[in-house]
Design brief:
The protein has about 190 residues and is α/β, with parallel strands linked by helices. The chain has six helices and seven strands, in the order E-H-E-H-E-H-E-H-E-H-E-E-H. Helix 3 (about 65-75) links the parallel strand 3 (about 55-60) and strand 4.
């Protein structure tokens, strides 16, 4: 039951009964935080209040702002454009509407009535993909941190070489003016170090 603890899911539908059914189904199979919105605008507002939403299940047929318009708005914002969206619809079943759903950035397009196992399997799949992506990002961050430390160490080594070498070192700019000198050059030329 705690397999997906820590994930946050937003479900959007203008019918309270549909929200209740979805919430009950998901809570029966998963331990995830669920946010609910009854309109496209409320969904957008919730994504701004909760930047850690992992997945959105979005009804297509809603008044004022339908699911396609809502998805388009979410995909325009940098903060929300990478959140996977699964469309659910009872009315827009044709291939044309499914293509439109994918065109506005949906990762999946499911038809109502919902087949419980299919929906739970889809949600699980996206959560697994998100887990893998986060694990890869952690590995990449660790490698970047290690590489940054190695570069800092190499820079420090070079800086020490230049500072403590017995030879004078003068670095000139393209016009021939002195840009940088090491302490040995200062001593040899009789300049005070600053």
């Amino acid at each position: 039951m705690n397999r997906y603890s820590g994930f946050k899911l937003l479900i959007v539908d203008d019918h309270a009964h549909n929200l209740f059914t979805l919430r009950t189904l998901i809570e029966t199979h998963m331990d995830v935080a669920i946010l609910e919105a009854t309109s496209g605008q409320q969904a957008i507002d919730l994504t701004l209040q909760h930047p850690d939403i992992d997945l959105i299940i979005l009804d297509v047929q809603m008044p004022e702002m339908d699911g396609f318009q809502t998805a388009s708005m979410l995909k325009m914002r940098k903060r929300t454009r990478d959140i996977p969206i699964i469309f659910l619809t009872a009315a827009f079943k044709s291939e044309e509407f499914q293509q439109r759903g994918y065109a506005v950035g949906a990762v999946d397009y499911l038809l109502k009535p919902i087949e419980d196992n299919q929906l739970i399997n889809k949600i699980s799949t996206y959560f697994r993909l998100i887990e893998k992506e986060r694990a890869l990002n952690l590995v990449l961050e660790q490698k970047v941190a290690e590489r940054t430390a190695q570069l800092a160490q190499a820079n420090q080594y070079l800086e020490n070489l230049i500072t403590y070498m017995g030879e004078a070192l003068l670095v000139l700019n393209p016009e021939g003016a002195i840009k940088t000198v090491n302490p040995t050059a200062c001593r040899m030329l009789g300049y005070q170090e600053r």
